[in-house]
Amino acid sequence: MKLSNNSSIESGGFFKRKIAIISIMAISALSVCATPATINERNVIDSSISQQPSVSEMYKRYMDAGVMKGKSGRSKASKIEKRSKKPKCKSKSRGEGITYDSSEAFGKTGAVAADEGRCSEIGVNVLKDGGSAVDAAISSAICIGLLNPHSSGIGGGGFMVIRKPNGESEMIDFREMAPAAATPDMYVKNNTLSAYGGLASGVPGELRGYELAHKRHGRLSFSRLLEPTIKLARGGYAIGRDLASALLEKENDLRNDEGARQVYFKPDGSILKLGDIGKRVNFANTLQKIADQGVDSFYTGDLAKAMVKTIQENGGILTLEDFAKYKPELRSTGVISYNGRKIITATPPASGSVITTIFNILEGYDLKNPKDRELSVHRIIEAFKFGFSLRTDLGDPAFVNVTEIITKSYDKNFAAKLRSRITDEETHSYAYYDLKNDFKSDHGTTHVSALDKDGMAVSLTSTINLYFGSKLIDPVTGVIFNNEMDDFGTPGLINAFGLSPSPSNFIAPGKRPLSSTSATIVEKDGKVEFVLGASGGSRIITATSQVFLNMVEFGKSLKDAVDMPRIHDQMLPEVTEFELSYPKYILDSLASRKHNLTEMEINATAVQGIRVLSDGTINAVSDARKSGAPSAY
């Protein structure tokens, strides 16, 4: 593509997901053009068993949305030009490049926003039964492990930021841990082993994290939180859009795994598709055992023995002792002020410190002036770069001294020094931002935001890393194992810029890899105003930041803030990514400031947000970039 000033926009990355072109077009049309009513229709819970439209109804919606029109043989450039135009569907642009149409819900009592509407509904049912926001978030996340298992599940881990009704906050770190036998150089000879098979898995932390959160803040029984997902797994559930897409993309990998063949393939050998009914009876049995016997049964009993056996038979080094020794960590949150608001976010090994750095830098600017919008976007990108430069020093606090870097990320004076180095006329190469090391980009994840009647807020991010984690599913327990070991850096792997990986994130026994998770809760006048978080690997940080800024600085509703097109810059690689509907006049301005522009992979991030309006109404939004829907009452 060419901008008006003849600067080039690099093509590439638009179809990084190697899926059949018709499927990509179908998925894109729904995510960009589907109305909230359409999404809600596909995500109705009836006695915890989904009642989705038939495959023929789904197909008709695809056709109505303009899917499969045109020739698949167009050049990449023509595809990009076509996608840059307003979609031929009912969803009209609402200005500023908005073409997404996310689902939203309103209530007066509580809400849950997740990337699967059936799971949001399960969470709100928990709230209606007297459960806390922690209860609701756990129940929704367990559900996502069934309905969107490519993103998260009990074979993974994550972080939960909790804001209690009295205003106090805490973070529960249930990130996966490296096995006791792990070594820094274990992937030097074959780095694909960090992504596939038994050697890719760290010790799962999700259930221990939920157990701790429930003990501290739960109101309903833990078994009650598992019941809806047990019913779905045993009785059957319709395959949703995101899972259907992931199954298609990873069909070859899954076909090679016994556990995957049991649950994701039909008797005739074909993989499950959109609208098909799936069952995971072994997974239902696992959840039932946990409901009956407690979380210990997962970490020390027969379930652990079965999982360790499968992992070791597939080249892994996890042991029963690794499972038995796993403990979640209760950590303090990161807290800063931003123009009268209180920002509460995740701390290492999560990346909330990058968000606090970004916000502290931007607080010193007047971003609201519409005449300076192009300049404001440039400054936001520069703040992203300085924030990511600090990320290379982050890691597991049990192994790395992160005190200095965290202190800097909260320091307004330090932010002012960084701000003074931002030049309004142009951007700079990575060396200008004091980047010391390369850093590993993580992937995947799911996010749940929850708020209850008492003002307890939960921002929960969970992951198994890449799609279907290690591509290894235990045929006994039905657990999908993470490949979180891929989030560590490996010594000696020099990147194209001559930078080596950060030693702060090298492998060590019992260590937790650095995560881009940036679960965030915002207060105004002592009350919860926003509950935010995202999926999408390293783009989590910039997506969460932009949704916040869109509301606070640019006066957008939560829905518009989520739907607005996004940019992303993590400094390396030296490109500024943009979504294809991003306003051209801003892209022209960025190009003139020497930003190297390239289109962002479609649906690369998805934000789940809750906003409490001035009259007390609760507004929840699930990003249309994934097929989720929120629920509120």
Automatic annotation (TrEMBL):
Gene3D superfamilies for the chain: 1.10.246.130, 3.60.20.40
Bias (Basic residues): 71-92
Stored Pfam families: G_glu_transpept
Gene Ontology BP terms: glutathione catabolic process
Swiss-Prot/TrEMBL keywords: Acyltransferase, Hydrolase, Transferase
Its EC number(s): 2.3.2.2, 3.4.19.13
Binding site for L-glutamate: 175, 463-465, 487, 515-516, 537
InterPro entries to which the protein is assigned, alphabetical: GGT_lsub (IPR043138), GGT_peptidase (IPR000101), GGT_ssub_C (IPR043137), Ntn_hydrolases_N (IPR029055)
Catalytic activity: an S-substituted glutathione + H2O = an S-substituted L-cysteinylglycine + L-glutamate; glutathione + H2O = L-cysteinylglycine + L-glutamate; an N-terminal (5-L-glutamyl)-[peptide] + an alpha-amino acid = 5-L-glutamyl amino acid + an N-terminal L-alpha-aminoacyl-[peptide]
Gene Ontology molecular functions: glutathione hydrolase activity; leukotriene C4 gamma-glutamyl transferase activity
Transferase in keyword set: yes
Region named Disordered: 69-96
Gene Ontology cellular component list: plasma membrane
UniProt pathway: Sulfur metabolism; glutathione metabolism
Keyword Transferase: yes
Active site: 445
Function field: Cleaves the gamma-glutamyl peptide bond of glutathione and glutathione conjugates.
The family this protein is said to belong to: Belongs to the gamma-glutamyltransferase family.
Protein name per the record: Glutathione hydrolase
Origin species: Smittium culicis
